[in-house]
Design goal:
Layout (H helix, E strand, L loop, with lengths): L5 H8 L5 E4 L7 E4 L23 E4 H14 L2 E6 L6 E2 L5 E3 L5 H13 L5 E4 L11 E2 L1 H18 L8 E7 L3 H11 L6 E6 L10 H5 L2 H4 L3 H14 L4 E7 L16 H14 L2 E6 L19 H12 E6 L2 E2 L5 E8 L5 E7 L6 E3 L4 H6 L5 E9 L9 E3 L2 E2 L14 E4 L4 E3 L3 E7 L13 E2 L11 H11 L12 H21 L10 E7 L16 E2 L5 E7 L16 E4 L23 E3 L18 H4 L18 H102 L10
Helix pairs in contact: 4-5, 5-8, 9-10, 13-15
Length: 750
Amino acid sequence: MDIKNKIFVNAITAFNPLRIRLGGSLEDLVVYDVGNAVKECPKFRLQKNGLFGFSNGCLSQTRWDELNYLFNQTRALVTFSLNALYGKIASREDKLWIGEWNPENARQLMEYTLEKGYKIDSYELGNELCGSGVAARVNSVQYGRDIIVLKNLLRELYPIASTRPKVLGPAGFYDEKWFSTFLETTGPGIVDGVTHHIYNLGAGVDPGVINRIQDPVYLDKVAHTYRNVSRIVKKYSPKAGAWVGEAGGAYNSGGKNVQDRFVDGFWYLDQLGMASSLDHKVYCRQALIGGFYGLLNTTTFVPNPDYYGALLWHRLMGKEVLAASHDGSPKLRAYSHCSKSKPGITLLLINFSNSTFFHVVISVYPFQKLSERRSQREEYHLTAKNGYIQSDEVLLNGTPLQLTNSSDIPLMEPILVDSYSPLTHNCFRVRFSGFGQDKNEGPGSNKDLTIPAQKTVTFKDRKKDQNWFRRQFSKQMNQDNDSNDIDRATAVAAAAYAISSLKDLGLPYQREQPETSKISSKGKKESTLSIQEPGKGTIKSSENPDSTVPATAATHTKKPEKTLLPAPSFRKTGSTLEMELNGSSKVGRTTSKTEVVAKPLHDKQPSHRYDTGTSTLKSDLPTTVKPPPQPKRQSSTGPGMRKAQADAWEEAEMARVQERYDKQMATILDWEQKRKEKAKRHAVKSEGKLEEKRAKALKKYRTEMEYIDQVAGGARAKAKEKKRKDQLKVKEKADTIRRTGALPKTCFCF
């Protein structure tokens, strides 16, 4: 596939960012040809006795470089699925592979990836090997041990937890017993995302697929799978989120002329709403490209209708999930989230009916308050061309969505309507409606939350020197490695200047731990969405959030010595969907925290010094360096003598400048090496403590389980023995009755 195709690149970039999972059925046959990892790099070929009818294949170093160039260019978040059968052998038992996973080839790929500076968001192990498997299967206990090996490998290669890729698994169809044993084996803190696959529409060749897509009662059946996965994740690994790692609707490449058409949006958007409301964090659509269920056309790369539905969801639906239900026709679906890029609520309405339109009236408490200055709402209507649901063209507010002449994704602008006007939801239509934006607020606007201005600290005493220096190296610098590279370079340059200056002054420059401040946001929202269909019921949605968002920042409580710095601001960051659902999406209540990142104090700073805007470090620094001695005056004042004096003075001064520079560079290098060694020791020590703590917790858990088993086993044995004795007594009495013919007497006590 041509991964340099302009349409392909633009389609990925438009999500900013899109999560891409690189994996699938053949991943467990792939070896990685990086460095001297493998002797041969074979291509896939048909093989009757191979998994899925194929031989082993190879990912070449060149192709890996090309893929990572694409990911970097499009700012994609990458989940890479590893070969989980590497080192295992097929047993005689049906589809079962035995033995331990060999991580050496994966290690070589990761080491090369680190060396090249490529960023991988997460690693997943194997594809559809859980439960009864598809073409192969692995025992749940052994798979849990293999996942622990993967986690330890990542801990070794990425000692700093904040930069370490996540671990995902098991990437297969849900089997309660298998999933439970797997998560029990790993224990908490190993798996970061529990991934499962969904294909709830049946086989792609089944002509009934199109009818199932339009049947909301049938679509509801998969909800129990979402609930069960969420429940078991909370039970065994509560810090890990439930992910839909792969969902294509109909398996075997999807339904022809169905899943690449407008009608598939009813299934897709309904699944996104259902998964988020049932506490799933990520929804990965099968596939970005390939098969009939691809978001992009396999040959032309032109987006299919579902691509635009996914893009609207990604841009409009925020992390906080609200409850939405109604007593009317099941042909109307309603899902509600807090808006993603502005205050307010986004409501998704899906009309499955081909003959009924719904009259929707919104009258909710928060909007009555906001209506004084927010009198309009945004609406996005998705419909099929000419009302034909199997059309491959989709209209947004009546306008066809088509690529521009430069192969860019078209603008997706809303229509603005009066907030008090009712919604008329016509047949076979999808609608996103946003409520609560300002009159003067454009569709893509974004407001910042600010904290009080930080205060400038001068170099007049040692404590203030340390506080300023600490602020340059506070944890803010590592909150977002992607967006803060320029700020990091500026701060490093400023810190280097500070180190040399402090060294010249004889001041200590030890780093202190940054203080932590909190931004509290407490507000009560009680909203009711009244959605009426003639003669039917209503839809209601409510939220009562109470969240505290921690933001790391160095603070100083003393009065400012000179000037006030501009106030840094915090902004909600975008989600990472394809589709990233995020949020802890419990129905009826918001429980997820808003992610914040610190904006740079100055967007543009010179790289050679730290400029506060009103004063510079140089002017603030008291200097104890003596001025250079003035050259002695000569008795002659001729031009030749003055030139000689100037040359001699210049040469002496240049020598001093070079000497000072050499000393500064040596000081910076010494500081850099010491701090790196200290940071590495600290990271290793912290990891060791965490590992020891996890081992103790796991040991305690196993001890408790053994104790419970022992007590339960003893109780069972005792009950069994009592049963045996009671049965003997009954038999003895029965024999007596047979001999004497008299029944035993029964005593009644009062």
